[in-house]
Request: fold
Amino acid sequence: MSRIINVAAAQLGPIQKSDSKRDVIDRLLAHMYNAHRMGCDVVVFPELALTTFFPRWYMEDPEELNAFYETEMPGPLTQVLFDTAKKLGVGFCLGYAELSKEEDRYHRYNTSILVGKDSRIIGKYHKVHLPGHQEHEPWREFQHLEKRYFEAGKKFSVWPAFNGIFGMALCNDRRWSETYRVLALQGAEMILLGYNTPVHNPPAPEHDDLSMFHNRLVMQAGAYQNGTWVVGVAKAGNEENCEMIGGTCIIAPSGEVVAACSTKGDELAIASCDLDLCTSYKSTIFNFEKHRRPEAYGLITAQKGAIIPQF
Reply:
């Protein structure tokens, strides 16, 4: 019997600095209601879905910076997302900036959570591959200070959810093959992946015209080589004079795009995803137990002679 999950990839258009979180949450709720009307089981929102992409600015005032973070989830403003999920019987995946206190220290993470149809948080993920830089670089048209404003996550995890095995990743994670492989080795059948990606790459502007090609390339390759569904969801459009790519899509374990958004605004891409399709790839060409050779990977050395770790 097939395990079908109806997925809504909930692309967002730009969020300006002047937009309130309440206004943004209303847009998320509209996506949830529309997805419910079309029979969806889970709605996947982008990275940092509650705010503009604030790492594009250098900020020294802690109060100014803290306004972009959530200190609890759900909180006073976001509780309505959880209440609506329970009322509609729709799960969701949400990316946001998290400020948490752990062992008498404050930590800042680029976070995503997976929430079930009963409104309970199933899993939480902290972004591992932080791009950009840490110090102010005035020569740039805009900053990319994720390394300054976030701590890197420590691991990739999977969770049983929606009658399958789900993993999460964020933005720059999608460019690294290890992301998909580590999740697949834990049995991932669907990877939920939000992103905020500018068209312009200040250190390498020769890449600009390839931004959409590279976006699809890495997600399709990750899906196929690991026999898993990938749901890539953008925050897109002209946000504070920074043009961001769209390209929201749902990718099958075959590597084929089965649904996609065609604009850079608020839009849903919807697909009925058969999780059992993963078996066709995980049990044949990408059967890790039969065909993968991890013992050979330890023979590859880095420039300084360090053994590349086995996964």
Remarks:
- Confidence is low (pLDDT under 50) at residues 302-308.
- The longest strand covers residues 91-102.
